[in-house]
Design a protein that fits this description.
It is a single chain. 4% of the residues lie in helices and 36% in strands. The longest helix is centred in the C-terminal third of the chain and has 4 residues. The chain has 2 domains: 41 residues, no CATH class; 66 residues, no CATH class. The strands form 3 sheets. Strands 1, 2, 3 and 4 form a 4-stranded antiparallel beta sheet that branches. Strands 5-6-7 form a 3-stranded antiparallel beta sheet, with no helix packed on it. Strands 9-8-10 form a 3-stranded antiparallel beta sheet, with no helix packed on it. With 107 residues, it is mostly beta strands. The termini are far apart.
Length: 107
């Protein structure tokens, strides 16, 4: 499990990273959430890349989708090949290997 803890005063103390098995939504949930519809464990680093290790495979299917707010994207899970609105991304612990092009960052 990966746990988020706020840097400043907040009304919550710890939340666990999850992926929805149904929708691919990524977010944070309460530490006691035991829903069978979410994945809360198996997140690992492979070198500097964030992956999800399941019982029979290891995957990195992170994607983003633009929101109505300029330069704000939602993080999701699943193949970006299935939806033109999704862009495949790598979650890494280091800075990007290249800067986005003008077309990629909307400028």
């Amino acid at each position: 499990m990966w746990t988020a803890t706020p840097e400043t005063n907040a009304t919550w103390t710890s939340k666990i990273l999850y992926i929805s098995k149904d929708t691919g939504e990524v977010g944070f949930t309460n530490t006691g959430n035991s829903s069978s519809n979410i994945i809360t464990s198996g997140f690992q680093l492979y070198d500097k890349n964030t992956i999800l290790r399941g019982s029979d495979q290891t995957e990195s299917l992170w994607n983003v989708q633009a929101t109505d707010t300029e330069n704000v994207w939602t993080l999701g899970w699943g193949s970006a090949d299935e939806d033109d609105a999704l862009t495949a991304v790598a979650l890494r612990t280091v800075a990007p290997t290249r800067q986005p092009t003008v077309e990629e960052n909307g400028e």
